[in-house]
């Protein structure tokens, strides 16, 4: 265990590459998440310009606007599905470690796929806003004959729900009112799709009234129907696997608890837990419980960080039940095996997700160095956790910040990276330190990766 700055005090960090403007543009303002957002959004802008120029007036085809809105909602829903995310990771991991580092470095940013979700979600809201304007225009002109008041009212209610969802999903609002964000995303989202179904049927009846075509035939011919079917199916899909799971709690300290449960999982998977079936879900990374007799036993480390986690740490019961939904999803460290060797940097309870990587089966394991900074590691997390870290990396740096103070994590990480000859650095810490480390390393040419907290 290292508690002295001698390890890195002579380290001289190289100058950051490029100008201040360029490096912030590349690694912050135009990171992969925002690039994906821009691609999706610009593609929609092109479609928007094309359809408005082609028709010149507000008398735009309602069906085309509804199709554009529903198509974007469909994309936003699909990219958040656990099985889609796992497939994306699997596709990237199919690239062998002998592939050029530049390629693997780009593919390792697969965890920033949320840019597609937000880009499509914003675009769908704007398409529906345009649809609302067009329907209002047609209502004023008397072109909506059947159930005109209902069509207009439902359309306005739907756009209000979509705007509310987007508002609370904005990062500043999401961080300020995370519970509200989660509930509006879920329940307002479900309600919005239900309203969309009603709107679709009412619009189909209006078309039937003016053309005489059977309603069923009109609906079947509308692409929006098929997008709504896909959307509705995938909204329900995670809840099909809603189940109550038994956990054995091991209170490590007044700051952390280890939850053990029996379930066969692929390596480096995360699960979502809640104390009630439709309550707030919290995502945690799992790691193998090597001390258990059963080979399928998994563990989770929960540390006191918020109201919900504090309640779990303060609960003295040794047997608990939590609700789990969906299928386990690959986490950021799941892409680390694309590199030949890595440095794992973590603080506090971030060691939990890291244990999943450093304890991979032999056929998947990669050489790695570990840097773990935390106050009183043995007292807070137990000797067993410390031993698991040292078993994976006998020279692991376990920094007791109560003894050695807060280290210069950028310097220490850079020194470990250069000493080890690793290809990449993975950071699992709090949002502020993760962003600081990833930017500090990437701006110096070091491939660095870490969670982006986009949901």
Beta-strand content: 5-15%
Distance between the termini: 35 Å
Radius of gyration: 25 Å
Estimate the helix proportion, in percent. 40-55%
Indicate how many domains the architecture comprises: 3
Based on secondary structure, the structural category is alpha/beta
Task: Choose one word for the global shape.
Answer: globular
Number of strands: 13
Mean pLDDT: 91
Uncertain residue segments: none
Entry summary:
The protein is α/β, with parallel strands linked by helices and 455 residues long.
Task: Note the topology.
Blueprint: H1 20-29, H2 32-55, H3 62-78, H4 82-93, H5 101-107, H6 114-141, H7 148-169, H8 171-176, H9 178-211, H10 215-221, H11 223-240, E1 243-251, E2 256-262, E3 269-274, E4 282-285, E5 287-288, E6 297-303, H12 307-314, E7 319-324, E8 329-330, E9 342-347, H13 351-358, E10 368-374, H14 377-381, H15 383-392, E11 397-400, H16 401-404, H17 409-420, E12 424-428, H18 431-442, E13 448-449
Parallel strand pairs: 9-10, 9-12, 10-11, 12-13
Antiparallel strand pairs: 1-2, 1-7, 2-6, 3-4, 3-7, 3-8, 5-6
């Amino acid at each position: 265990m290292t508690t002295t700055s001698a390890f890195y005090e002579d380290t001289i960090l190289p100058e950051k590459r490029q100008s201040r403007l360029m490096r912030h543009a590349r690694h912050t303002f135009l990171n992969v998440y925002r690039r994906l957002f821009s691609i999706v959004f610009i593609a929609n802008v092109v479609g928007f310009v094309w359809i408005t120029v082609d028709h010149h007036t507000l008398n735009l085809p309602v069906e085309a606007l509804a199709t554009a809105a529903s198509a974007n909602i469909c994309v936003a829903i699909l990219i958040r599905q656990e099985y889609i995310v796992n497939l994306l990771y699997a596709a990237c991991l199919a690239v062998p470690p002998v592939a050029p580092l530049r390629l693997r470095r780009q593919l390792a940013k697969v965890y920033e796929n949320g840019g597609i979700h937000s880009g499509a979600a914003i675009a769908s809201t704007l398409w529906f806003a345009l649809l609302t304007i067009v329907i209002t225009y047609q209502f004023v002109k008397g072109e909506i004959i059947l159930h005109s008041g209902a069509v207009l009212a439902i359309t306005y209610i739907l756009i209000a729900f979509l705007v509310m969802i987007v508002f609370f999903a904005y990062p500043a609002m999401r961080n300020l009112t995370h519970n509200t964000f989660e509930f509006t995303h879920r329940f307002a989202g479900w309600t919005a799709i239900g309203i969309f179904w009603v709107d679709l049927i009412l619009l189909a009846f209006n078309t039937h009234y003016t053309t005489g075509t059977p309603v069923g035939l009109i609906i079947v011919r509308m692409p929006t129907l098929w997008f709504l079917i896909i959307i509705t199916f995938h909204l329900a899909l995670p809840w099909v696997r809603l189940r109550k799971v038994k956990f054995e709690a091991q209170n490590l300290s007044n700051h952390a608890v280890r939850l053990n449960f029996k379930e066969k999982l692929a390596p480096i998977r995360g699960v979502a837990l809640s104390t009630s079936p439709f309550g707030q879900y919290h995502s945690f990374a799992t790691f193998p419980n090597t001390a258990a007799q059963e080979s399928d036993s998994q563990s989770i480390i929960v540390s006191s960080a918020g109201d919900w986690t504090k309640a779990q740490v303060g609960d003295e019961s040794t047997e608990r039940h939590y609700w789990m939904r969906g299928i386990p999803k690959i986490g950021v460290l799941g892409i680390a095996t694309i590199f030949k060797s890595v440095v794992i940097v973590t603080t506090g309870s971030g060691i939990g997700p890291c244990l999943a990587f450093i304890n991979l089966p032999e056929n998947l394991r990669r050489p790695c160095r570990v840097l773990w900074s935390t106050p009183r590691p043995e007292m807070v997390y137990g000797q067993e956790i410390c031993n698991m870290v040292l078993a994976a990396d006998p020279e692991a740096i376990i920094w007791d910040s109560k003894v050695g103070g807060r280290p210069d994590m950028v310097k220490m990480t850079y020194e470990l990276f250069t000493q080890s000859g690793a290809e990449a650095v993975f950071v699992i810490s709090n949002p502020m330190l993760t962003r600081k480390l990833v930017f500090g390393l990437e701006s110096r040419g070091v491939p660095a990766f870490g969670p982006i907290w986009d949901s």
